[in-house]
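quick one, two chains, predict together pls
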Amino acid sequence: MTEKQSIWRSAISVGLVVGGVSLLLSLVGMVTAFEERYIITGVFTMGQLLLFAPLITGGYSTITRVQEKSLVSSLLGGALSGVFGGLVLTLLLVVGSQVDLRLMFPNASPDLYSIISFGIPAPLGYVIPIVYGAIFGLIGAGLALLPSRIRSAVLTATLWIVVLGLFRDMFALIPTFNQPGPLKTIFTWIFAPSGLSVLAAILLFVLIGGYSYWRSGRPEPRQQRSFSDQKPAIRWGVLIVGSAIVLSLPFILGVFFTEVLDNVGLYIIMALGLNIVVGYAGLLDLGYVAFFAIGAYTMGVLTSPELGFFNLNFWTALPFALLVTTISGVILGLPVLRMRGDYLAIVTLGFGEIVRILALSEWLRPYIGGTQGIQQIAIPIPDYILATWNTQTKFYYLILAGCLVVGFIAWRLKDSRLGRSWIALREDEDVAQAMGLNTVITKLLAFATGATFAGLSGAIFASKLNSAYPHSFDLLVSIYVLCIIIIGGMGSIPGAVLGSFFLIGMPELLREFSEFRLLVVGAVMVAMMLYKPEGLWPEERRRLELHEGEEEPVEVAEEEFAPVGSTSD
Amino acid sequence: MLRNWRQRITITDIVVWAIGVVLAAGVIYGTIVTLRAQLYSGATWIDLTITGLALGGIYALIALGYTLVYGILKMINFAHGEVFMSGPFTAVFLAIYLDNIGFLNASPVISIILITILSAVVSTTIAILLERIAYKPLRGAPRLVPLITAIGASFFLQYAFRGLYGSGIKAYPEIDVLQGSWEIAGISIDKTQAVTIIGAVLMMLIIWGISRYTRVGKAMRAVSEDKEVSALMGIDVDRTIMNTFALGGAAAGVAGILYVLLFPVVNFFMGFIPGLKAFTAAVLGGIGNPIGAFLGAMVLGLIESIGPSLFLTGLGIPAPYQLKDALAFVILVLILIFRPTGILGERISRTKA
């Protein structure tokens, strides 16, 4: 009896929560924004996925939360949670039909209602969310009951379908797919004008699911077979082919993608810099954008004929821009040397805001242009050289070179004496000091290195835009960069690259998404910290440490603080 | 001996003190120049002081949220500015509705109370949800983890509200009774400012009363002293932490309404700067100490309203009011460098700060 009661109770509470999530996604406008974005053409849109996915998750987590259960009660429980999730949506429909919610929630439009009720009018339409809620709850419960091998195959296949369907437009923009030839034939067969074609979706699902099932059945290959363990011939082959692809990307992908890659590259440079400050040395810097701004403005002041101070060209100005940002890194570092954790974060945030406010102010207008910013900033490669290349392509190679240099420095620093000092500092400052580490120099070097990288990125950024405006440098840039290294994994170099593609590249390709970028950034930061604090591509040492650190205190804390009879989680 | 002395005074100290001396000299010089030039009349200074006190009262209520949470969890609730925003941003719809049916000007007192209650309820709910979803699972995690969560939650809330209510600015309707000013002892005070100051003081008293005389308040103080011992004494620590967030949220919700009395527009971004300033105030007064938060907020409000005219004009900086936010941040940085314990703060050891 108690077992049943608990599964029902869990179903109801989970159902209401996931219903709330669906409701939030609807009212925030995500569901309607993705209404036109088909994953499988004519069948399933991204908007519907956003609406239904919480319900499926609800069915799934209802069962995984309960220890003992029978097959029937599990399935019923899943369906029940879906029903309650659906009820929340029904409530929205009912209220929405009586009151014009749009006065308060601009997104509560008839459009949204028709998505929720599948366009079926009032009395029957109210039942619809409950019905599909039950179905999706059942699906979720079913997923939870499947053997894990099948489940992971199904999930992998679904994920691939969603990704392929979503990025259909992206593939369509690649020139190679538009020239007549076998690629174009394959492309038109797989994709509909929006999303995947039905047949291709089914085929891909089977193929990918089957492959994933077959793969997971094979005995694990040797654990962590790293790249350097491969034969030299393979290694060189991969390297040469890889670099050939990377070098020819602008010509394969066309102008639009090159532009996206340029932006991603600028953020990779910044992320690698912040990675040193936050990831290696453990100093949470929220004013990182200040260095980006200082790099950009130095480049502007030194090269812009509009201001007419120096009129240098890009290449002579670049070393000065880097020098200025390095020095400003040290200057910021000095006063905050003694602070840790939270205080450091807030003070650096303050610094970032001070720089931005100063850049906007009337006071410094004669020198850095105030709200007007600086125009006519020099470009690295004049137009008459390589005249057939477009600007994006030229900057692609510059930024690529920047990424490689910065990445190389970050990689070599990591296991150097300095890198190990940073990690020691991150682990325990007092012990590090007791071991004879010069914490002052070590911290300052971290700030200075991080600042220089951001300065490089800023200088290229200013030159790329030909201009520098104070509005390009608000706090959000710092938050993006921080989120990039959190997604990728703090202290991890490939993580920084991965994070940049995910956070900067993806919103550019999914136009609807860009409006919700910060919403997702916030949610991702919370979710990562709650469930995967080491990031998607973790640095080995950090992963070990976070998991070791997690086990003990959390258990102790729960024993200590959980009051008797608490039903929480 | 000599070695010891040299070790204690490092190059950092010298640089830090040099920065301090330069800034102090700038402030003093600017003040003298402004006062000697007699740029502003006495009435202007009084006006600025009253504005400063009203601002200070609002900051004090928000700062309470930071300080109470810090006192118990030793973490900065970075998303508290968004808790502050959520109340008035939601209550604006009630205000507009009441204005449309004419109730707002017919019985302004009841209307304001209703709006304030709604605002406080929303802020409290957000604060509790925040604690429950984002912070509670992370007790005992490494220090950076909850801080990053808080930053993420802050942005999530901002943009969730932007999505829910739209990205535009919404205006609170005017209340006729609160237009104009009162004449008290020869000084004219804007009615809105007077109400703000009174409201803030009342709310402070209520919170003080709760923390002093009720069981909930006593539990809060006990838990902030020592979690383990409180748990042994039969205090439900989780519940008390939730109550703390709730109380901070309620204070922020009330502060939100007082804030819109002074600046009657709301948007999703309105919580960020006041939140940061209230944090500054909490640190200025000594974080973890509610009376300190009050003092710090008043000082910050005054500096912010008087400072630009007082010493920035004297330094010959054009349009000094553009820099008032920068001024608040400079103060924050300076306190954290020179006196991280704040005015009344308990001693925060270096390992904590």
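The longest strand of chain B covers residues 181-184.
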